[in-house]
Design brief:
The complex is a heterodimer of chains A (309) and B (290). By secondary structure, chain A is of the alpha/beta class. In chain A, 45% of the residues lie in helices and 12% in strands. In chain A, helix 8 links the parallel strand 5 and strand 6. Classes of the chains: A alpha/beta (309), B mainly alpha (290).
């Protein structure tokens, strides 16, 4: 299709229905809570947002409902993380028959390979679940990548709703400034932690980007997906790390079974430093209802547990 | 002291290995004999059905109390008992066979569970949260398995003769005693108790696998029920030790390592057990030539 007819069509739509079009919000579907929060910040009240996997939900193992397909079928824009994070997504997009653009927000960001750095003797069985991708999908754990997400969201909204473009750009810029401040804050907090104490343990490998961006080392008994099962060798290696004083804090996550971490904690005497929010936000009354709150809360929890030990 | 390093040191050095060993041995103690009776009753697939059947109970526990293990396990127990008893009753008192009525009840139960989970709109994988792993046994889980083992062994000892009669010739037992039906339900209760307790402490694969594989392997070696139970228990215990060591040295997931160890024993038994494929064939030939 050439530009001209499309432009003419757009003009006619605007002239015919200028007022209703402005009043009708852009229908946006976000795949999980963190993307939902970013979209709300960019879209403001110009969008009607539906988030598929809600607070404290695990997008690794989500089973979509018919309501999700309905929302997706009616959507103007679909925002997803990509990199095989949402295993349920491809089938849902096909089943819903949506014509909306499906925007992968990780596009253009700095992506890390799925190699699990700093993991001794690591042989997690990754077969049989969603994470077959070459790249680690948990990209939002670096604020730098969140800025890329925000830019991609603004681009997608502009493409779908040219009338609101100025407003989306302004929102994105204002939010981007907040993200820059957040990034500086995290860097400052991590700088306050002595180098030799910067190794910590969580339940699954969701913090690769945080590790890469802010210089902490995260170890985990489970692999990148929450579905893999730990081996005795992995658990023994973690316990040795802690006993050799090479890991200084241990955390549970909001979406995973806590018992393995509790067991490691009770065996080594290293107290659990708190709950980290990795793949989902908390509910509105929790400590991490927005992306910025989540990153701040995680940073505070980590530095508090390390410095307090 | 290479042998010490390989076989003993992992258990001495790490508390979680001791717990894993204790928990899996205790579970073998109770679920291997139960598995023998299940196998003799031709109900070997009950375990898998039960893993799905407990979903609505666990979901109700989750709806009322959130992600707490105790209410979810109690709920799972109730759902499991309802399904097992319902299936048992239907097969006892109607024309329906045990396997078909079990399949019907567990499917109804599973659908109900999925429905309840979806009502809440939660996307937490309940079964993933409920099912434990052998590497993460806390004191609570160990106590649970120990009490299940105690109850099971005691019940088996009390009802031993009735159970054997019930397994091998239920019509005979019904003709000589009124104990038949009650014994059947007591036994189903034991099955549910072992499975649900096992799921919560050790995960589905391990509790179903430890129940059935050693029993199936023992059948190739023994023909009397008593020796079969003892042998199943020994195979189960050996698989636990071997699997945990394999998981430790070769960096394999623990549950599958234990079950595959039992699987190797099973395959070996098929080939070389006195009642297995090769020996039976050899004897058969001799008969022919003689």
């Amino acid at each position: 299709m050439t530009v001209l007819p499309r432009l003419a069509l757009a003009m006619s739509v605007i002239t015919l229905s200028a007022l209703p079009a402005a009043a009708e919000p852009l229908k946006v579907v976000a795949s999980f809570s963190i993307i939902g929060d970013l979209a709300r910040n960019v879209g403001g009240d110009r969008i009607a947002l539906t988030t598929l996997v809600g607070p404290d939900g695990d997008a690794h193992v989500y089973e979509p409902r018919p309501a999700d397909a309905v929302a997706m079928g009616k959507a103007d824009v679909v925002l997803v993380n990509g990199l095989h994070f949402e295993g349920f997504l491809k089938r849902l997009v096909e089943a819903s028959g949506t014509t909306a653009p499906v925007v992968e927000l990780t596009k253009g960001g700095e992506m890390l390979k799925n190699a699990e750095e700093g993991h001794e003797g690591d042989n997690h069985a990754h077969e049989g679940h969603h994470h077959h991708g070459e790249f680690d999908p948990h990209a939002w754990q670096s604020v730098h990548n969140a800025e890329v997400y925000v830019k991609n969201i603004a681009d997608a909204f502009c493409a779908a709703d040219t009338a609101g473009c100025a407003s989306y750009r302004a929102n994105a810029e204002a939010y981007g400034a907040k993200l820059k401040a957040l990034d500086a804050e995290i860097k400052a907090a991590i700088a306050g932690i002595p180098e030799e104490k910067r190794t910590i343990i969580t339940s699954h490998d969701a913090f690769g980007y945080f590790q890469h961006e802010y210089g902490l080392t995260f170890l985990a008994p489970e692999g990148v997906s929450t579905e893999a099962e730990a081996s005795a060798a992995d658990v023994a290696a973690l316990i040795k790390q802690i006993k050799g004083d090479r890991a200084s804090a241990i955390f549970v996550e909001n979406i995973t079974n806590q018992r393995l971490i509790e067991q490691i904690s009770s065996e080594t005497g290293l107290k659990i430093g708190g709950t980290l929010y990795s793949d989902a936000l908390s509910g509105a009354d929790g400590p991490a209802p927005t992306y910025i709150d989540m990153m701040k809360f995680n940073t505070k929890t980590i530095s508090g547990a390390i410095l307090g030990s | 002291m290479i042998i010490y390093d390989y076989l003993i040191a992992p258990f001495v050095e790490f508390g979680f290995m001791q717990r894993a060993l204790a928990g899996s041995l205790l579970l073998s103690l109770s679920s291997c004999p139960v598995g023998v009776f299940l196998m003799l009753r031709r109900m070997s697939l009950t375990g898998d059905a039960m893993a799905h059947a407990i979903l609505p109970g666990a979901a109700v526990g989750f709806l009322l109390y959130g992600l707490e293990i105790v209410p979810m396990t109690v709920g799972g127990l109730v759902a499991g008992v309802v399904v097992a008893m319902g299936a048992g009753a239907v097969s006892r008192f109607t024309v329906q066979k045990e396997d078909a009525s079990m399949a019907a009840f567990y499917l109804i139960s599973l659908a109900l569970g999925v429905l309840i989970v979806s009502l809440r709109g939660s996307s937490v994988d309940l079964m993933h949260v409920l099912f434990g792993t052998v590497l993460a046994l806390n004191d609570e889980a160990l106590r649970l398995i120990a009490s299940i083992a105690g109850i099971t062994l005691l019940t088996l000892a009390v009802f031993w003769r009735a159970l054997i009669a019930e397994c091998l010739d239920p019509l005979f037992l019904r003709s000589v005693s009124r104990l038949g039906t009650p014994v059947h339900f007591v036994f189903l209760g034991l099955v549910v108790l072992n499975l649900v307790g096992g799921f919560q402490a050790l995960g589905t694969l391990l509790s179903v696998g430890l129940m059935m594989l050693p029993a199936a392997a023992a059948r190739f070696w023994a023909s009397r029920v008593g020796p079969m139970c003892v042998l199943a228990l020994a195979i189960g215990a050996a698989s636990c030790v071997a699997g945990l060591l394999l998981s430790y040295h070769a960096s394999l997931p623990s549950g599958p390592a234990i079950i595959l160890s039992a699987g190797v024993v099973y395959l070996f038994s098929i080939l070389s057990g006195p009642r297995g494929a090769l020996r039976a064939r050899v004897r058969h030939h001799r008969h022919r030539t003689a």
